[in-house]
Amino acid sequence: MTEAKTSPGLDFVRATVAKDNETGKWDNRVVTRFPPEPNGYLHIGHAKSIALNFGIAQENGGVCHLRFDDTNPIKEEQEYIESIKRDVSWLGYDWGEREYFASDYFDQLYAWAVKLIKADKAFVCQLDNEQMRLYRGTLTEPGRNSPWRRRPAEENLELFERMKNGEFEEGSHTLRAKIDMAHPNLNMRDPVMYRILKAHHHRTGDKWCVYPMYDFAHGQSDSIERVTHSICTLEFEDHRPLYDWYLDQLDVYHPRQIEFARLNLTFTILSKRRLIELVKEGFVDGWDDPRMPTISGMRRRGYPPEAIRAFCRRIGVSKTESTVDIALLEHHVREHLNRCAQRRYAVLDPLKVVIENYPEDKVEQLECINNPEAPNGGRRKVDFCREIYIERDDFMEDPPRKFFRLAPGREVRLRYAYFITCNEVIRDPDSGEIVELRCSYDPQTRGGDAPDGRRVKGTIHWVSARHSLPATIRLYDRLFTCEYPGDVGEDGDWKDNFNHGSLSVLSESRVEPSLAEFKPGETVQFERKGYFRLDEDSSEGFLVFNRTVGLRDSWARMIQQQKKNNR
Ligand code: ATP
Ligand code: MG
After folding, report:
1. Residue 122 contacts residue 249 (beta carbons within 8 Å)
2. Which of 75, 146, 169, 301 is deepest in the core (most CB within 10 A)?
3. Tens digits of per-residue pLDDT, 403-440?
4. Given this model, what pLDDT does residue 555 score?
5. 218 CB under 6 A from ligand 1?
6. Domain 346-461 sits in which CATH superfamily?
7. 455-484: string of b/e by CB count within 10 Å (b at 16+)?
8. What element of type H or E holds 540?
């Protein structure tokens, strides 16, 4: 038995690496890479791949390269490169000097293509796209050889050179590998290696009129960088024979490709192609809209990188596709913030309370605990006075039996402050809306306890009307209305599942004054309301918070329920 097999903690990718280390297959080197195509922003699925590739390198004293797979000049932009670097760093991973671009290998790739032509392993084909499709055959029928397949090497060399020099129109010629048109794997039926694209490339400019296909670039880039384990998602499993074929024919250093199942999340779409549509068509407010499943969206929403890493560890790596409950991701976010975030008071939807027997000018400073979960979280003073705000939904004029908060004639505790009793409800004479409550307080209950041992059933939070600051608060719901968005059949449009009610903005909220000291990017727990991150849209005197997650942890509840059921 190998070490890998006896270590139950290792997933199959890590087990493979461990086994290779044991046999000395790669001279004990471990080199992985994360190879994004810079055609959009990274999403939480990429985080899984990043955590896996960088994680394996770290655990084995190896290195992980960041390689931009920039072989398609049409969809790629510098903005995406910058965002990818920012996101990988923010997640806590460091590629050091090892920042590479597939485009840096264009000369070498071209030379390799020439080598294959000379060895009669590649040819220039003049079938157009549609013809090529017809010649390819199907899963059940073999394809047919291209009429150009038997061109002599000399002629292929000349034509390929002329393709490179821009002498032909796009789509008129391709360079194809000469493998087997009857191969059961369609990827092996004389795949295209190069196509003509007269496009400007963000790094190589107008130097090239031909660009390599992903399959011809990827394995060779891995080879040039002497990658040991080329870890990718399952959809590339069918490409592995081609990956291996190119490297074998070229007789160069040959890494090992390993495929794992990509991450899918409920209520979420993880595809750059689709996320781009949401951005470009204005469904969301940019790539970093806090509702987006992008890394930048999650950062702006207030997800800590530690929580994303913990989530990636928790979901593990396997060979079977599955969909992870988004509540599990939120569970990790909550778990981290519960330990780290300071607690403060905010009233999201304020209702004014006047404490009639409290002196007009009096202000008391009451002591509150910053975070009971953090041993050194400290304490702070909060101002209390005659006029305060409470949450509108902490009051009911005609409460049902199980409502224990404020109601006419009822006494509740104001957290860290006093017991108050509601005496009168004031309404707007025109609209009939409740605009104010008249209450009285019991001076004996300072700090929130009655000396006579009298109990109240409800405890609510509050802020001082005079001292609190105005704030705008953005609340988020799921971005899609169903668990498996996009699962809409032939005629359906995945965008029909978009949740148009996913953003609500509360612009009348009040927060305690200490929030003025927070900086954009900091996250806080508003007691009873959830975790919130101060947004970059804030300015002095204008605070904007994004709700990261609510407090209720449906995942933790589910685990508890399961335990109960098992008993
Ligand atoms: P998308 O389908 O969103 O466009 P992609 O696979 O085209 O994603 P790339 O930039 O090519 O995006 O991906 C870089 C790396 O991230 C690849 O190795 C890819 O396999 C991996 N990756 C992409 N999506 C996921 C996912 N949902 N789960 C795990 N890994 C992923
Ligand atoms: Mg891709």
Report:
1. no
2. 301
3. 999 999 999 999 999 999 999 999 999 999 999 999 99
4. 78
5. no
6. Ribosomal Protein L25; Chain P (2.40.240.10)
7. ebeebbbbbbbebbbebbbbbbebbbeeee
8. none
The band of 7, judged by pLDDT with boundaries at 50, 70 and 90, is low
Cβ-proximal residues to 465 (8 Å cutoff; 6+ apart), any chain = 352, 385, 387, 388, 389, 510
Q: Does residue 77 have an active-site annotation?
A: no
Residues of the chain above pLDDT 90, percent: 89
Task: Let me know if the fold of 265-343+470-567 is the same as that of 346-461.
Answer: yes
From 56, 70, 233, 237, mutation site for ligand 1 pocket: most ligand atoms within 8 A of C-beta: 233
Cα Rg for the chain, rounded, in angstroms?
31
- Top-level CATH class of 265-343+470-567? mainly beta
Residue range 526-561, pLDDT digits in tens:
999 999 999 999 998 889 999 999 998 877 777 777
70 Cα–ligand 2 center, Å: 10
User: If you average pLDDT over every residue of the chain, what do you get?
Assistant: 94
Separation CA 49–CA 330 (nearest Å): 19
Concatenating the DSSP letter of every residue in 229-267 gives EEEEEGGGGGGHHHHHHHHHHHT----EEEEEPPEEETT
pLDDT mean over 363-382: 88
Assign domain 12-260 to its CATH architecture.
3-Layer(aba) Sandwich (3.40)
Q: Is the pLDDT of residue 493 over 90?
A: no
